[in-house]
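On clarity, I found the account of how folds are encoded harder to follow than it need be. Since the whole study asks how a given chain folds, the encoding of that fold should be made plain. For illustration, here is how one protein appears when written out as sequence plus structure tokens:
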Amino acid sequence: MRTKIIRVAEGKNSTLSHLYIDGIFQCFLLEDKIRQVKIMKQTAIPIGSFALKVNTVGGMNTKYSQKFGTNHKGMIEIAGLPTFSAVYIHIGNVISETAGCPLCGLSWIKKDGNFQVLQSTDAYKMIYPKLLSITKSKDSGIVIENIFQF
């Protein structure tokens, strides 16, 4: 699998991950807490193998088209998730800015027991073209694993 999310740490209500493409670390990701029973908009996506695709409908596309112009071709969606839909890798810094979607960042901090990612827009600009290219390839899947380090 070319693209992989490795979860490395859990906060009080957050999960910190690493994003790898072709075995090379790209950025940090922030998700909600991992839960055995899903709580809508407060639960990390499940582990497993899924598809990456481009989603060109919805309000986030309009917002990102305005922000990034012609560089934006659609949201990068993690598709085929059980009990989840419209899960995008996108910009944000704290878990209140996600509803189950991974937020990207170039660095992280832990504040009040929860992780935050920083420099999210810079991380997004770096990974977006790579992920967009992967969605067009034969190996357009993504693997999500829990390998906690701290």
In short: The helical segments are 59-68, 120-135. The longest strand covers residues 24-32. The beta strands are 3-10, 14-21, 24-32, 48-55, 75-79, 90-91, 103-105, 107-111, 114-118, 141-146. The first helix runs from residue 59 to 68.
